[in-house]
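Need a sequence for this fold. Nothing fancy.
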């Protein structure tokens, strides 16, 4: 790259209003990316305007939108932008993020996008390994239930495909469902009934362990997954760690950016 060009990284996340999980996940991912590419400045942007507004009103903490981050990069003389999303799938948020960024394309000589977490078949295998490493203590008579977000986007099929792949790769006791789509909690309860585990661990399959993890997964409301498993007769234990806390997951996102930078 010639001397008059300046490359930088933009890490784009959905965001979270929970500071504890933000530090352990989004910030941890950004630090790992920065450590892998110390020669490039790193910028942060979040796509959830609701969360950005909430943080400002509640804590007076400002987080850049995609537009604000790109304007800042332009002012700083950045000419080439490497965008790495921390999104789990190629869904609505990722499509919208690309659209927003490409509308600013005229400000930069090049803009390129790294892949979200689950994009290729190899990504699925790497994610499965990262989960298996994290839950290496899981016994054969126990089950792990992962809660994904779910979407109306056609990419939602990756959740059922991943569940199938867990089984195919020798993990018959790891299940994945979604809060807002298919597979639902009802589907999971039917599948797990067949497995008949002595105990069920519940964990978010989301980058952060925010509202969905603390309320929909582990909350005291009768509709929470924790309460539904308990009321069905299972011993249940929530594990409130976002995917961003898993070293193997962070490594995949760094690898995606490295592949992008090598092009």
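Here you go.
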């Amino acid at each position: 790259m010639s001397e008059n060009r300046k490359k930088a990284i933009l890490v784009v996340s959905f965001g979270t209003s929970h500071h504890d999980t933000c530090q352990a996940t989004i910030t941890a991912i950004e630090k790992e990316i920065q450590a892998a590419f110390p020669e490039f400045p790193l910028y942060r942007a979040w796509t959830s305007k609701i969360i950005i507004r909430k943080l400002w009103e509640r804590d007076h903490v400002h987080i850049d939108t995609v537009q604000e981050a790109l304007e800042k990069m332009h002012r700083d003389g950045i000419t080439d932008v490497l965008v790495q999303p921390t999104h789990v799938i190629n869904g609505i948020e990722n499509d919208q993020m690309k659209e927003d960024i490409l509308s600013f394309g005229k400000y930069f000589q090049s803009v390129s996008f790294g892949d979200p977490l689950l994009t290729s078949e190899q990504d699925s295998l790497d994610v499965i390994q990262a989960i298996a490493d994290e839950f290496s203590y899981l016994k054969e008579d126990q089950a792990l239930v992962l809660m994904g977000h779910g979407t109306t986007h056609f990419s939602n099929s990756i959740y059922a495909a991943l569940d199938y792949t867990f089984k195919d790769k020798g993990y018959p006791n790891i299940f994945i469902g979604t809060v807002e789509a298919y597979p639902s909690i009802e589907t999971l309860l039917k599948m797990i009934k067949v497995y008949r585990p002595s105990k069920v661990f519940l964990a978010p399959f989301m980058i952060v362990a925010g509202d969905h993890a603390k309320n929909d997964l582990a909350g005291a409301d009768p509709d929470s997954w924790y309460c539904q498993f308990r009321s069905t007769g299972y011993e249940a234990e929530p594990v409130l760690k976002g995917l961003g806390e898993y070293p193997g997951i962070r490594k995949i996102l760094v690898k995606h950016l490295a592949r992008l930078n090598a092009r």
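For context: The first helix runs from residue 19 to 24.
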